Amino acid sequence: MRKLVALAVVVALTAIAVTVVPAYAATKNVTVGNNFFSPKSLSVKKGTKVTFKWKGGVPHNVTPSSGRGGSKTSRKKGFTYSKTFSKKGTFKYICTIHPGQMKITVKVH
Ligand SMILES: [Cu+2]
C-alpha cells in the first residue's frame, strides 16, 4: 500500500513539473549599425522575440517594407526595438533613412 501511495505522489509531482515548466521562448538579437543590420537575414522559430539594438550615432529605424508599424527613429546608443514573431512567413524590414543599405529578412518557421 505504501508503495502505491509513493508511486501516486511521484506521478502527481511529475505532472506538476511538466505543467509548470514554461514554453521555451527563444530570443535573437540584431545589431542596428551605421549603416547596416547585422545579421542581414535570420531564420527563427515561431514565437521568437527579436530585439534590435542600436549602436548609436546615426539616426535609424526598423520599418516593415510594407511601411506599417515598426520602431521609432533613434540615434541613441542602446536604443532597442523588440518584436515577437508569432506567425510563420518571411518578413522584410528596412531603415527608411538608408533603404539601399539597411535591409533585413526575418524568416519564421
Ligand atoms: Cu538607417
Task: Give a verbal description of the structure.
This protein has 109 residues and is α/β, with parallel strands linked by helices. The protein contains one helix and eight strands, in the order H-E-E-E-E-E-E-E-E. It has one helix at 2-20, and strands spanning 27-32, 37-38, 41-44, 49-54, 63-64, 80-84, 89-94, 103-108. The strands form two sheets. It has a four-stranded mixed sheet with strand order 2-1-4-6, with no helix packed on it. A four-stranded mixed sheet has the order 3-8-7-5, with no helix packed on it. The protein starts with a helix and ends with a strand. The mean pLDDT is 88. Bound molecules: copper (II) ion (CU). Copper (II) ion binds at residues 35, 60, 95, 97-98, 102.
Determine the oligomeric state from the structure. Answer: single chain
SSE-based structural type:
alpha/beta
Write out the strand line-up for the largest beta sheet, numbering strands in chain order.
Answer: 2-1-4-6
Beta-strand fraction estimate: 25-35%
Residue-averaged pLDDT, rounded?
A: 88
**Gap between N and C termini:** 50 Å
| Structural Rg | 21 Å
Number of extended strands = 8
**Residue runs with pLDDT of under 50 for 5 or more positions:** none
Overall 3D form = elongated
